Amino acid sequence: MLLTLASRKQRWTSPFKQLLLNSYIFNHFYSTTSNDITESQPSQSTPPPIQVLLTESTGRGVFATRKIGSGELIHTAQPFVCHPYFSSLHTVCYFCLKKLANGDNSGVNFCGDSCRKQAMGFCEVENQADWSAFDTHCRTRGLKYPLLVRRLACMVLSGVASSNSLDILQPAILSPQMIALMEEEFGLLRCALLDADLTGEKMAFLTKQWYIGVLARIRINAFRIELVGGSYEDLLLSASSSVNAEAAVGSAIYMLPSFYNHDCDPNVHILWIENVNARVKALRDIEEGEELRICYIDASMNYKARQTLLSEGFGFQCHCLRCLSYD
Asked: Which Gene3D superfamilies match (predicted)?
């Protein structure tokens, strides 16, 4: 089924609104520059050398505020919400998706006390409900994004997130057939929570419209988390646009990384070293004012395959320089 993006040609480009957008993003969502980050204790003191601008042709985009060198770590980002795949449920941390040496198949696992404490809020809500019908529905149909919606709903119910947290993200326009399928998922989610005696004002946000709106945003903004091999230092020095991934372990939604537009010959790349925390790295020298772009798909695919996947999965035809040359 074909997805189409909601109109992105918004002529909202006044300097004041640009300032508000960047202030909102950098004040609400964690990111650092490469000069401040260490593996053990990242700093948040210096903003990254980028800004989000609203353009007339491609909607929001990320642009360099200074020259960025090839291989430079531009910024990091923590997810707003993430969830492991069913296949990784007992082998990665339930909060940060870090691979575990010894997982427990009898329940969810955490890599340490810090992740366990951070997950305590939504886990307390999750543990009150019987998710067997919801999980069976998702497993048998190979669905992964409803798991992100469930976690977000539990985060809202526990008070650690707002129900409109993802409203800033671009949604997909969904076909009537897709909406009909989502209604069944929504019913299973809501029933599980109601059966757990979660009622009253806290549940007021959980409407069919909310569920479909959140899922529409997740469908075109979720990142597939692939933990890479190699050392952190080696990856920072590398200028390669592709790395060998051990395996995809889950999905996540980020705010700042979601504003990056696509290019089949990208100048930046997102890496996941050991957990769900993203690192955005320059693949080549980037000039001040140049737009930073990532590749949404496997860049090694041929022209026809790329166009088909971008059209069916993201709702647009790519007109980057590589595609214009039919490479």
From this structure: 1.10.220.160, 6.10.140.2220, SET domain
Nearest alpha-carbon partner for 265 in 233, 229, 289, 291: 291
Query: What are the tens digits of pLDDT across the range 115-149?
Result: 999 999 999 999 999 999 999 999 999 999 999 99
Query: Is the separation of the CB atoms in 62 and 47 below 8 Å?
Result: no
| DSSP reduced 3-state for 74 | strand
93 located within any domain: no
Q: DSSP label at 203? A: G
Indicate if 202 and 258 belong to the same structural domain. Answer: no
| Number of compact structural domains in the chain | 2
Classify residue 200 by its DSSP letter.
G
pLDDT tens by residue, 84-111:
999 999 999 999 999 998 877 778 999 9
* CATH number for the domain harbouring residue 30: 2.170.270.10
The span from the CA of 94 to the CA of 84, in Å, is 7
Residues 6+ away with beta carbon under 8 Å from 48: 31, 32, 33, 74, 75
Distance between CA 130 and CA 193 in Å, rounded?
A: 8
Query: Which range marks the domain in which residue 318 is found?
Result: 4-78+223-324
